[in-house]
Fold these 3 entries.
Entry 1:
Amino acid sequence: MKKTVILLLFLFAINSYAQKNPEKELGAWYMYNGSHKVSDKFSIKTMAHFRFFEIGDDMQQFIGRLGANYQFNKTISATIGYAYLSTDRTFEALNGDFSDHRIYEDLNVKHKLSDLGIAHRLRAEQRFFESRTGHFIRYQLGLSHPLSKKWSTYIYDEIFFDFDGEAYNQNWLGVGFKYKLSNIVKLQAGYMNISNDASRSFDRIQLGIAISTDHRKKG
């Protein structure tokens, strides 16, 4: 009887872990991204992401960003801003939530090859968390192509490097569709795979809304 109880408890523990193993779950990111033009050269960038281990349960991370963007010309722009992250480390070696404050700088380059839109983003991040500091360098290459006046498709890859231990940190590969609801609002639906330096892989559905507003004074 005692052995039976121990076996049942062991099987229950394995089952619970399998259900809570984030690598076996299809997670979801619910995303808001905003761009608010205040002059011909300057705009305000806003962002809020709610990232879940599962489709609608067990939030892994909240991230909010606020930045100021300067447009040098039609091709090149730069952003400097602040980001706040609150992360649940339930599945990591160090459990519990922790907060992460970041300063970030972006260099953005956009151009076209026929109908193919090409976007490069080089991002530096300075992290402040748990009385420590850290540094990320991130590079993203994105491609987009219109399917109609309303629909477009996209694919991107972003690689992360840090200055702690191994240089390579993680990679994000995403693909999906965007729908232009109006000149102000666009909707996004896609899939992303995350792989990291610990050889772990995570699958995420991405659902987003992007809002672009123009607050320049009309002549």
Entry 2:
Amino acid sequence: MPIDLRQVSAIAGMSGLYRIVKPTRNGVIVESLSDKPTRMVAQARHRMSLLDEISIYTNDEEATVPLADVMDRIHQKYNGELPFGEKPSDEELKSFMSDVLPDYDEDRVYISDMRKLATWYGIVNKHVGFSADEAPASDEKAEEGKEEKAESKAKKAKK
């Protein structure tokens, strides 16, 4: 998965997204993902949702699509430039959602959810970023190279 949302959260009643910095005795220290980041302590009374744990409903009753996968699809399709302005209409949001996730459940995914997805994508794209898709392939090649070196050392040791 090209994007890691494990340390990014949304806090109920507060706009924007927050990066989890470290735990405290009473909660966690979070830093806002904005042009001027601010830190605060999110206490147990704050309802926090990690973006890594959020999924979007599909027409299949048993399946949902993780938010990270949806954001990855948006990034691949639009490469950081969403197809609408700051205040999209409901129809633009529905069209956008059906382009990104054609089998989303229209009864359980509301316009407010689509608006939030677009806003969150903009914040994540700007402040968290997406990694290159080639990274896993290069890791595999590096691992193969290490195995080959180990095998050649073992053969030399036997001689």
Entry 3:
Amino acid sequence: MKKAVIFLVLIFAFSAVFLSDGYSLRLGNKDLVKLGVGQRSMFLIGTVYYASLWVPQELKGKSAKEIIEADEPCAVILSIDSKLITTEKFVKATREGFAKAAASGYATNKSEGFLTKFAEMQIAKGDTIYLYYTPGSGLSASYKSKATGETKNVGVTPGLDFKKALLAIWLGPNPVQESLKKGMLGQ
């Protein structure tokens, strides 16, 4: 009996370590919790990227619209999972996402300025893009290259309107992929 209990405790401990993603986020003096992870996939290509959504505890369980509209810190972390993704394809797809968001009522005039900041990056499989929104400061973007191990600050785009438009790409009424939206919301 004692061996069975020890075995179960060890299984639980190893599960906690290996199933955890090791991230802990704090933005705008608030601890963020991971709401969910969604998978962006395309027919015949498979998985393109994974997107995780981080929000303050008080937004956990809220609707997508409430999360988009909230002037609260949040983060989206994109993990590129396809060697077919290039900087040009990333920018083109994100531009199309902003157009869909605008058609859903989340327009911003800051999208092109944001996209030009990625022009110098060489996005490849295994890279990570970090998007952090802090009220009063704006949305900061950084990029970590798997090949070099370097993280580069891409810049800050100010304004709640921009945060709303960016989140609406994934969480809006007309998201880039419905299953991705549900995954990011933890549904």
